[in-house]
């Protein structure tokens, strides 16, 4: 509010000197009532647009010079302390000037751009795409990063195209810049330059992603063993038949915990308005007699009738109470209490979603309770016996084990087809294909085709978007029939590592949430079966959890805490490098079916490319048993050349698309088996080198290179390196190895260990020998 003119001249409207201006402050004034506020306005006081009731009247704020403060106090106004004064403004100006100087310095020097990945690839019909990831040291939203690429070898920078990059943030933290989707390109670039509005610039070569050439199938190799979406009953019948047909190479492993079953208690609901509505639930499952129960709400013919409940076998009749005029008076709560008392052996009754139930109930014709399940009779309503198909010539635990499991989420119809197709290929190609024979002879393979049989039956026949199992952990306020599609546990949030109960993000404790973690860790038989399998067969070293959709290839860690994005411990650099190295082969095998490329930006640890998933199974197996596990999300986005856009395929694409997804990701599962076999046969120790990366006055930087994924242990204090020595770390997320710095001439001692456990130069770190590597790093003058 602007200062007003002074009608009576008691206080000057304008401050009369620069000295007064310098003492101006924002002051609190308390007046008894609105009349006091009006008087301040009349005096021309510069009132802020602020007013609130306080003890003693109304507090307002005014911009006052020292003289105005004295004058108002002399007139009896309660002028209190200052909210802010010129000293505060001076501090703010100083802070602003400092910030501007810092920004100007950064603009002159430029931010540091760290390239993470720059790759081109082809997908499906041969269309080429470009994917670039860069991290800036100035992640402010005002800092814009632009990528420019050439049009091939010998062409000038920017001749291929230019695009603005997007900031990728997660849990409120900056991750890196990237393209939201890979960019379609016409020619293959050899290098890309990224510049920022903060002054940074970096140029890097563009590499080919998924470099293995597309292979023609062996003339003796057979595939394509699925021709429709299958329910879990069919899926398990297929693996049972395979075990029976190929007893020399396969057997069934029965898992100890039966599921709750594809079954529900039968229910019926009565009433329309919430206060007069109630519902009943059979004590027996619908398939075990609950569907035979009926309830009738009858209005007696006489006046002043009492509320009564009578039973005739499975038929329950409620005679509602009436008043002297013959009008029904029974409330929902009264009927509920009567039913629970008199018919409790057949059913339980509840008011609607916790309502007090004080509304009067209306009569209703005989209503038969129903479990609302629509699967054919071929689908058993009994608890389900989950089974794994164990494939291998030698099944005594002496071979490295691989655990392939599908359909933790019910609505992901393609995934069990993937597991079935893989099993069929392994057994039907064993006699005629040498590569398949090597896999079956050298590995111990466990295929669990549907982790969530109950939920999957429900998804196929009742509610296609069912994600969870069918177990209702909700109480009466959330278990009425209209909520029947909202019950169940998200099995991939029910595990014991990094769970919501440990404070991690990405799961819910609400029983109707699609990411409900269950009432406790490992509360569900389905998740306990997974854990049992990995404990029962400790030779399992690798695992693949197949989901849909989106076309992702991920690995642990899979969860973090917020705020702060506190991750589960990342894998060490050697293991992380192995994950990346294996992805090249595994994703190339996916691509070999029809050309689908999984994007580089959808490859990596789960939180780096997707989100936090508290209590997931891959983390369970990795952190508790050291099982190297991946997550497939089948169903990569499909490029539409007409619209030049990627289109998502969904959980249940037309079968023609679902079939292709099952085929290509069965290829990927075979690729995982090939990686596992290479691990099993690896007897060659790694080789490493120490590389000087920079010299400054008084300091030298160095790192290590290595010929295969391996972990490097080193010392800088002259001691003998062991498995307890420091490990070489990653420089950062999705970056290469860190650079170490020494400020004096130092003898570096180190050795490397690959994933298979081979130690460089066959050194014995637990012994007393000196077979480790060593090199002196000198520190002298400048570069």
From TrEMBL:
Chain segments carrying region Disordered: 764-783
Keywords: Carboxypeptidase, Hydrolase, Metal-binding, Metalloprotease, Protease, Zinc
Cofactor(s) it depends on: Zn(2+)
InterPro entries tied to this protein: CARBOXYPEPT_ZN_1 (IPR057246), GH29D-like_dom (IPR059177), Peptidase_M14 (IPR000834)
Stretches assigned to the Peptidase M14 domain: 345-676
Active site (UniProt): 633
Keyword Zinc in record: yes
A GO MF term: carboxypeptidase activity
Keyword Protease: yes
Family as reported in the entry's similarity comment: Belongs to the peptidase M14 family.
Designated name of the protein: M14 family zinc carboxypeptidase
Organism: Actinoallomurus liliacearum
